[in-house]
Design the sequence.
């Protein structure tokens, strides 16, 4: 089909006016943008350096001839070529700034612009990580303050912002668990992980040298199978990793009991903080008995996700685990000045080359300062309000994997559409024609054909109304004109891409054509 | 209303009624009541104006490198960043998009990652690159784990001329899976301040070794002697892992040319400000036959149903969301935006621009070294070819020298005594293309007056 035909089919099927954003990713099929190397013109260049202001030595006297490089196959472009190329690429992206991004478990909230200005301040950007502490007191104060803020929000007093991503925080935490057991002379082998957990949990346990033991879930409540947990919990368990609320968007109502039982056998409770957005200001995991938790700063505390990072994965721990935090920590001396505390004999060591993603931490710091005590309370409350409102809007047209009040997100069941030959993937792709990034799909793994929706607290009622209408329209199309749904998306620059071919005939880099 | 929430009280009531409850508290009935709604010990929220004033003022308490001469490198280098980069990566479409899970609406990020992978391969001379790891330190840890998985061995050699911070991260990453990391001496120091180097590692290399990790140029700024190293390792089935500085790759031969199996690099300094050391971005590249053990996301080119070219995340059966405990790594969110900045940097500079950055850095550092070597009591401690960084043996402890420099408004070099007491008089100094001659001359004057 030609682009026009695609659009006709789409429109005939009751689709969609172009989304109000007028975004070009919904304008139908488009020509590809050449790889930047293909635009290279020999001899072209952007910018220049000042003339060298020191006496010039012969480079051959500095670098042995055998070590010199003779060809460097980078593209040769003007600045306008570069700016236009990457601006064009940017226009092939969906983003929060122009659209609603209901990706479950990803917390795609608005990223305030003032945080960008703060992060761009020269007095923060142009600091060398190895400058003497006395010359970077402002930066150390930021780190020290956010350590205290996160401690207060999570109820866990020991904090390091050195981990730079959620999975990195997990690894830091589980290595601390390992160090704490070893310190007691205990060599434990197992980590308990619910079957609803993110894949990073078992992968982390393996990286830390542990065997993952899967705990089942209760099909009715959507919570962890408590009996299964009890039967698998023993004194060979180093930790149990719980996501709170869990990945179905439900609060684990027996969390305090889980913590109590785990502690009875000397097992730590690790909380995956990916879903912390629901809890901020409502409850502190530390108060429930959780021992460790990582905070995804790029989710809960508004660091822009950047297409896949940078983020932040601050680790927060109970008092007894503080000695094992990564080194160095930023501490405040009696005179009020800030310093690095590198002398931490029980520390697991360093997990990042320097102090973690400082420039991301700075954004979260600005965000928390602006929210303050009341704003943090409203954050979690509105995240949960919005999710339940969205859930109510969809209740007549969809079934839920578990049908009860949810926290910050919920999971739709895509299975009822199978009788029309439509799968969750098709619904997701058709939603794109209606101008929306699809929710998270096929996760959690325990919910077959899952469609997981997280609106976040920053979205307005009318945005959620419009999205729900679009999803309901897709459900209607699935029942009445399934082929339009099965072949979607029709309005994007490219159609569904052949992922099997991508994996079987890997083309992972540009190579100059053989002349 | 605060916290960037748009729902008004009237709208909230309509929403609650649609849900079928009358208060927000009813949505939280699953939470234990005794801990519900804690009284957080935090101050009231600030306005945008107050936030800006507070943080701008705080930022000005730092001594920043734009306003103070600095010769501090030791792994973190300040290079000039063309204005276009900041503007392009600040575009909301790049800044506020998620990991590209839905390729049809993420072709911008996906193609940019494909271009990053292509550039990393071009620079390093390797076959395959991933979409990025957190930084060169964690990349070193991942490389060690990958080499152990590939060789089914548990012993890793790392030269003591590798950045000490990368070695610390390596030790942390190795502690979980019980990888045995052995530090191998690659330099010697004598009390008179002369440094020597070790180039024969044959007694260390045997068939229990998974890999040897080297840094080129090394932490002291010197070029390691790499000839024959990969052959010696290959003869016992071990892998050469090279940590490379991308600027150096504008003038010296790529690790792929001397037999590296895995290459790690810090991509942050080529495309972004030093940022107090983060966010960084780790380059991670390897030989084609190693790809199935590679950590992290990989983007590949493919076609849609009409044969149109497009890009997708691929080879995901290595990754945590598919393989869970059998994944090659737990990495998920990495450093996409910083990788994008670096990609744009290399496109902006091109081969000629990158070579100029490297050459100017080298020329300025060698000018500094030639001037310091004329100062009584100072010795330039480089016994091997070196590029833009070098140790100087000072007449006083390096810590005192740095303190005196700071008193003159100069951020000095890196005190190597922090790593090794035997080097307490050694100061590691670096220049890049942004170091003006006037700063160099001033440094020499102050050093001469101490």
Sequence:
């Amino acid at each position: 089909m030609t682009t026009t035909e695609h659009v006709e089919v789409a429109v005939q099927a009751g689709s969609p006016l172009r989304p109000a954003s007028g975004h070009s990713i919904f304008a139908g099929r488009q020509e590809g943008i050449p790889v930047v190397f293909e635009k290279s013109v020999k001899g072209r260049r952007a910018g220049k350096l000042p003339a060298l202001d020191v006496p010039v030595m012969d480079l051959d006297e500095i670098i042995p001839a055998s070590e010199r490089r003779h060809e460097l196959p980078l593209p040769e472009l003007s600045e306008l070529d570069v700016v236009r190329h990457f601006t064009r690429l940017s226009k092939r992206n969906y983003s929060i700034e122009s659209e609603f991004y209901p990706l479950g478990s990803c917390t795609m909230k608005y990223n305030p612009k003032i945080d960008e200005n703060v992060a761009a301040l020269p007095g923060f950007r142009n600091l060398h990580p190895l400058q003497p502490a006395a010359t970077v007191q402002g930066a150390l104060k930021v780190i020290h303050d956010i350590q205290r803020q996160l401690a207060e929000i999570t109820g866990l007093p020991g904090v390091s912002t050195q981990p730079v991503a959620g999975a990195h925080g997990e690894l830091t935490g589980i290595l601390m668990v390992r160090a704490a057991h070893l310190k007691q002379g205990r060599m434990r082998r197992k980590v308990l992980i619910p079957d609803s957990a993110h894949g990073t949990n078992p992968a982390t346990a393996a990286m830390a040298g542990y065997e993952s033991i899967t705990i089942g879930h209760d099909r009715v409540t959507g919570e962890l199978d408590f009996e299964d947990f009890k039967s698998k919990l023993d004194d060979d368990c180093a930790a149990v990793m719980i996501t709170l609320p869990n990945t179905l968007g439900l609060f684990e109502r027996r969390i305090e009991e889980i913590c109590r039982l785990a502690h009875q056998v000397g097992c730590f409770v690790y909380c995956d903080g990916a879903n912390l957005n629901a809890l901020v200001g409502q409850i502190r995991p530390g108060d429930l008995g959780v021992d460790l938790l990582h905070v995804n700063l790029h989710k809960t505390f508004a660091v822009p996700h950047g297409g896949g990072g940078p983020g932040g994965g601050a680790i927060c721990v109970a008092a007894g685990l503080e000695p094992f935090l990564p080194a160095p920590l930023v501490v405040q001396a009696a005179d009020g000045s800030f310093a690095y505390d590198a002398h931490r004999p029980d520390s697991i060591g360093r997990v990042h080359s320097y102090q973690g993603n400082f420039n991301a931490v700075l954004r979260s710091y600005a965000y928390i300062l602006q929210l303050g005590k009341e704003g943090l309370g409203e954050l979690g409350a509105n995240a949960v309000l919005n999710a339940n409102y969205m859930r109510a809007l969809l209740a007549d047209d969809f079934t839920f994997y578990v049908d009860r009040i949810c926290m910050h997100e919920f999971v739709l069941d895509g299975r009822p559409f199978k009788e029309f030959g439509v799968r969750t993937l098709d619904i997701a792709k058709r939603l794109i024609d209606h101008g929306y990034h699809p929710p998270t799909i096929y996760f959690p793994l325990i919910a077959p054909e899952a469609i997981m929706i997280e609106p976040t607290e920053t979205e307005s009622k009318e945005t959620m109304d419009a999205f729900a209408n679009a999803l309901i329209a897709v459900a209607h199309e699935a029942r009445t004109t399934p082929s339009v749904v099965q072949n979607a998306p029709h309005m994007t620059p490219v159609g569904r891409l052949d992922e099997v071919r991508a994996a079987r005939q890997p083309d992972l880099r540009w190579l100059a054509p053989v002349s | 209303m605060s916290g960037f929430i748009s729902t008004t009280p009237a709208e909230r009531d309509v929403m609650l009624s649609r849900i079928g409850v009358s208060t927000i508290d009813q949505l939280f009935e699953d939470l234990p009541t005794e801990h519900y709604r804690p009284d957080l010990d935090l101050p009231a929220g600030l306005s945008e104006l107050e936030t800006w004033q507070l943080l701008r003022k705080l930022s000005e308490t730092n001594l920043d490198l734009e306003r103070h001469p600095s010769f501090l490198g030791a792994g973190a280098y300040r290079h000039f960043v063309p204005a276009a980069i900041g503007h392009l990566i600040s575009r909301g479409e790049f800044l506020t998009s998620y990991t590209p899970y839905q390729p049809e609406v993420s072709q911008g990020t996906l193609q940019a990652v494909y271009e990053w992978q292509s550039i990393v391969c071009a620079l390093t001379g390797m076959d395959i690159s991933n979409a990025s790891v957190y930084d060169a330190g964690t990349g070193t840890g991942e490389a060690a784990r990958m080499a152990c998985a590939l060789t089914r061995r548990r012993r890793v050699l790392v030269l003591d001329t590798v950045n000490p911070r990368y070695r610390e991260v390596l030790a942390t990453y190795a502690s979980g899976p019980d990888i045995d990391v052995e530090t191998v001496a690659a330099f010697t120091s004598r009390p008179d301040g002369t440094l020597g180097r070790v180039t024969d590692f044959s007694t260390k290399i045997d068939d229990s070794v998974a890999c040897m990790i080297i840094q080129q140029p090394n932490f002291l700024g010197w070029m390691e002697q790499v000839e024959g190293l990969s052959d010696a390792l290959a003869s016992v089935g071990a892998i050469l892992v090279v940590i490379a500085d991308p600027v150096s790759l504008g003038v010296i031969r790529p690790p792929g040319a001397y037999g590296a199996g895995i290459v790690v690099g810090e991509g942050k300094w080529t495309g972004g400000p030093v940022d107090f050391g983060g966010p960084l971005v780790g380059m991670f590249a390897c030989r084609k036959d190693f790809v199935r053990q590679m950590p992290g996301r990989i983007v590949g080119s493919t076609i849609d149903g009409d044969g149109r070219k497009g890009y997708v995340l691929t080879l995901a059966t290595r990754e945590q969301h598919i393989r869970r405990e059998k994944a090659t790594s737990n990495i998920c969110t990495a450093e996409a935006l910083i990788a994008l900045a670096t990609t744009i940097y290399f496109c902006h500079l091109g081969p000629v621009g990158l070579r100029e950055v490297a050459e100017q850095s080298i020329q300025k550092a060698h000018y500094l070294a030639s001037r310091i070597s004329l100062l009584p009591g100072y010795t330039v401690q480089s016994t091997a070819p070196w590029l833009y960084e070098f140790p100087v043996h000072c007449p006083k402890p390096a810590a005192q020298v740095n303190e005196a420099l700071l008193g003159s408004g100069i951020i000095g070099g890196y005190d190597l005594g922090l790593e090794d007491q035997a080097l307490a008089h050694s100061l590691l100094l670096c220049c890049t293309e942004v170091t003006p001659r006037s700063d160099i001359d001033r440094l020499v004057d102050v050093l001469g007056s101490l």
